[in-house]
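Worked example 4.2. Below are the chains of a multi-component assembly; read each line carefully before continuing.
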Amino acid sequence: MQKSSIRKFLGNKITWLYLLSIGLVLGALLLGLFVSSVQFPIMTILHIVLDKSFGLGWLENIPRNEELIIWNIRLPRVILALCVGASLSLAGAAFQGLLRNPLADPYTIGVSSGAALGAVFVIFFQFTIIGLGSFTLPVVAIISGFITLGIVFGLVRLSSRSLAIETIILAGIIIGAFIGAITSLLISLGDRDAMTQIMYWLYGSVGMRGWSHVQLVIPFIIVGAIILLMHYRELNALALGEEAADHIGVNVKRGKIMVLIGASLLTGAAVAVSGSIGFVGLVIPHLVRLLTGPNHRHLLPLSMLFGGSFLILADLLARTIIAPKELPIGVITALIGAPVFAILLVRERIGRGERG
Amino acid sequence: MIKVERLAGGYGKKPIVQDIDLEIEKGEFFALLGPNGSGKTTLFKLITGQLPILSGDIFITGKAVSKLTKLEKARKVAVLSQEVQMTFDYTVEEIVSLGRYPHQKGLFKILSSYDRQVIDSVMKITNVERYRKTNFRLLSGGEKQRVLLAKALAQEPEILLLDEPTNHLDIKHTFHMLDLLKEWQQTKGLTIFAILHDLNVASLYADRVALLHEGSFLEVGDVNTLRKEQQLKQVYEVEVHAQAHPFVPKPQLHLTPTHAYEPEEAPLAERFQVERVEEIAHLRFYQPLRSLSNATVGEGVQWLQHFCLLKGRVHSKQSLLDGLEEYGIPPEQAAAIGFNGNLQHVVISERPFLDSQLLVVAAIEASDNVDAIHLMLFINGQLSDKALFDGYMAATEAKVKACQRFQLGAVQSAKDVLLIAGTQVESQLYDLEPIIFREGIEQAVIAVLKEAFEKIGGSVDD
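Applying the procedure described above to all two chains together yields the following structure tokens:
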């Protein structure tokens, strides 16, 4: 039976990809914890992590400061990078499937600009909401992200009852451009100090956030990811076009709204805690698609895993290249992402030429 | 299966289709016909649910379509439309699997083993199995359409709606696809509702057709509806002639373009040349003639340019074809008669005929008796099919009369070939006076035969 053996082989290939990506995540996590200005033995790191999380430590006499550095500084940083990378990649894959446009990314529909504006607002006016403290910034960012999603939705609904893809993209770009202009306005009005701070925030970083940000972002990621993973069949069906999807029984409108909400949850939360880290959400889904094919059943979870480990490694580079200073993580992802993106563009054009 | 009652609907408030009443039985192949803009696609989209119904009702298996959920509907109705736009490089198998969407259950909606079984079987039937892992976008148009059909069949529908499914396909793939559908219809009782462009294809495959004109049905009936030339002319604004299919009892339509064939005005004598050598007498016309004959090569009604008597070669069609090839005459534009007499005795005589001309060629095979009389008649004028047959009859009768009058005894006429052809130059030779037309032919044939009998040395008692 040749066919079943082929199927088995492909099944194995997917299994291997899952194993590989999980291994990659674990490896990246460890590497992220290990590589730094002050290095600790791997065993110490493992002990601290396992002891703190599961009470499974086996070493005695670990210095308190080592424990603090690993548990309170490095671990939340790599976990946050993992979460943000996974969110952006998953959202990117979903947006590309939903908008049937391989060049879409989590920032296409403007939610991120809204979240960024909220953050810039907080930095600019230096205010804190009582009871939230340093939490003010991400909370305001997430809220303004959702306000933006609401505005985009409103605009789309007003101009197209069926939520046409083109309208969604256009509305996203319009709102994004408008909010971007306000952000620029705030930057140009601010003093030099605020300006540097804002610019730095906009480029994105996962450093110096602590556990509070991880705790903030995780519920959004869980909800967003579940929503998207449950709609993988709808995303596959949409590749045939909305009419064809409707013909096989897909509730296209509801599917689109759910995917938009899920992907926006992920994007808004990621931007709120880490700034606008570009290219992860664009390039990772493409790379994964090259490995698995476009079937969203595997594309979505694998994008999460690959995106997460990619961002941990990018963050690692960002903080080691010119240590002890740090590069904005967005710079690293763009430096890697832009050339990859360019290659994909050229590939796409050549591909079209071959077909046409 | 599908019932439509007083349906009206379209884009916006103004209905594009209205007063649509329709009932399609289970297992029926129903074709929706009509020109562009007549509302075919609108009606189609009203049935698939893409467009809102303004008034009236559509029932599918007895249930109002508005009461069915999308999933319930997709389990009963599958749609195959024109070529789709495909994003990303999905494999054929992944696309066919999408057809199982409305049947999938459970939280994670993974393909069950029954789903896989259905997918495998529909891929086998549509003959796309070998493309299982191929990228859909790399397939040819015909293959793509077969894959989409497989997807539609994977829905295990009771009703299949087709919107010009063969639009981008060549003849081979059109027939393959429709044969496949027809088989599925007949073996599984699938109900098919299809928009078809090609009236001839619709006539061959549909059980019933509906003719849509300016948003409402002009007629609903079996394919013999397509024999109503006037009605089709009104709808399509094209000159239409219904003809019989040679093997299938269904009408086939001949369409006449505005810039149709117009033969040059010229007297008959200037329309052809004769070449008479040892083995062949060859009349070559400069423009084709519409001809009717029982010649071995060039039988039936045809447009022909070459008319030949070939010496010997009476035994088989192949020997005639070989002869034509020898003289460089294209057999598909030629009528050829095997002739056992002396070619020098063949009479070729042009004479006035009504207000035009008639050319008669008479070739007699004779040894002791007259063995065969071959006649070819060429009329410079427009001959309808009826005129051709009338002329044919007149010539046959004239031949019999001539034999009697010249007392040739028992003529063995089993081998006789008769051919009549018209140049189709605009004229009213026949339409005005059919009786005079027939008489004229009779007289001409008798006169020419007389000449021919004299030539072979027969004494003709007049």
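Take a moment to check your reading of the output against the notes. Chain A has one domain: 2-355. DSSP finds 14 helices and no strands in chain A.
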